[in-house]
Amino acid sequence: MSKKNLFIILVLAPLLGIIAGGAKVYHSIALWKYEGEAKSFTIQPGEGFGKINFKLDKEGFINSSKLFYRYNKINNNMENFKAGVYIIEPGSNMLDIIKLLTTGKSVTTSVTIPEGKNLFEIAKILETNKITSAKEFISLAKDPDFASSLDIPASRIEGYLYPDTYHFTQNSPADLVIKSMVSTFNKKTAEVDFSLSDLSKHSVIILASVVEKETGASFERPEIAGVFVNRLAKRMRLQSDPTTIYGIWENYNGNLRKKHLLEKTPYNTYKISGLPKGPISNPGLESINAVLNPNKHSYLYFVSKNDGTHIFSKTYKEHLKAVNEYQKNSKNRKGKSWRDLNKK
After folding, report:
1. Contact call for residues 301 and 316 (beta carbons, < 8 A)
2. If you compute the radius of gyration of the chain from its CA atoms, what whole number of angstroms results?
3. What angle do CA 192, 197, 202 make, to 5 degrees?
4. CA-to-CA dists, residue 298 to 29, 207, 319, angstroms
5. Domain boundary at 124, 157, 188, which?
6. Which residues of 72-101 are buried (b: 16+ CB within 10 A; e: fewer)?
7. Distance separating alpha carbons of residues 303 and 310, to the nearest angstrom
8. What range defines the domain where residue 305 resides?
9. Quick one: 135 and 205 in the same domain?
10. Separation of CA 125 from chain center
11. 51 and 171 share a domain?
């Protein structure tokens, strides 16, 4: 055999084979394109590369599952695929798809959790927006072991589901949603000096949750916080309607009756002394700071003026007068709403 033929057999042929193989890989990875219609593709939390690869191949989003595997293996991409819902557009090649699924730019739903909502209300908001199951969310939010795993010193996660605007993937597991909200709470309160109060951090959150429910007028929060601080100092019961309502929430029809005020629950501050068992809502920073920096005054009572604000009293006699004027006088109640605050 001539040296020329030997060179062809030993060197050139394998080289051509490598080039041909490389061309095939390049064709599959970069030149081949998905020609179907724009479709969504979901990666579930915890889903491994093997299942992701199988689903992409089954849906026709990639040309070869074997080459897709080899390319990602060589480029150390196996662990980089992120959970989410993605839209794969026509004309996408496998490199485009890899970039899409590893950058985490998934389709999300924006949902706003207002200040003062409790875990049951938040669960309803999330389910309405198709974020997660309300039943699963409530079950986990009331799970003491789950609360403990998130370093929350309570039997519920109430109070730590920070009110904010979130961008969640639809049909997310409830635990991931809760962890995200608690993480936001931790970030938002990282610079808060809880040592300003004689209360523990958790007690501050409890009282802030009550303040949050008592008024929608932000300028009143330090004043109302001051009332509750004064009552606690005098060992007076807080006597807050929102705490009573929270204690019966799952059986509450929206009408607070005298029998409810007489029912002893760990949250009924008409029947128990001190703070309720735990937070009754999820407060924002303004209410937390109001508890840490309450207005110093001698007020012990407040009653709604039916326009979103309150009148404050130092004595029970003054309080009764205010109740008669603003709660028992139909003229003062007629046509008034907290919404009127926005018109001032």
Report:
1. yes
2. 30
3. 70
4. 74, 18, 13
5. 188
6. beeeeeeeebebbbbebeeebbbeebbebb
7. 5
8. 194-343
9. no
10. 10
11. no
**128 CB neighbour count, 10 Å cutoff:** 10
Question: Given phi > 0 = left and psi -120 to 50 = alpha, else beta, which region is 130?
Answer: left
CB-count exposure of residue 239 (10 Å: 0-12, 13-18, 19+)? middle
Amino acid at 172: S
Residue that is last in its domain, among 60, 81, 107: 107
Q: Which residue has the tokens 């949902």?
A: 111
Position 20 in a domain: no
pLDDT one-digit tens code per residue, 301-338:
999 988 889 999 999 999 999 999 988 766 655 545 44
What CATH number corresponds to the domain at position 176?
3.30.1490.480
Say whether pTM exceeds 0.70: yes
Q: Please report whether residue 276 resides in a domain.
A: yes
> Does some domain include residue 15?
no
Domain count, the chain: 3
Tallying the residues shown for the chain, one arrives at 344
Residue 43 three-state SS: strand
In whole angstroms, what is the distance from residue 102 CA to residue 82 CA? Answer: 6
Q: Are residues 143 and 179 in the same domain?
A: yes
222 and 328 share one domain: yes
Query: Do 333 and 248 lie in a common domain?
Result: yes
Q: Distance between CA atoms of 70 and 60, rounded to whole angstroms?
A: 18
pLDDT in tens, 208-258: 999 999 998 889 999 999 999 999 999 999 999 999 999 999 888 778 788
32 and 94 in contact (C-beta within 8 Å)? yes
Distance, CA of 109 to CA of 92 (rounded, Å): 24
H helix or E strand, kind and range, residue 65:
helix 65-74
For residues 279 and 156, what is the distance between their CA atoms, to the nearest angstrom? 9
Given the structure tokens 């919404």, which residue do they identify? 339
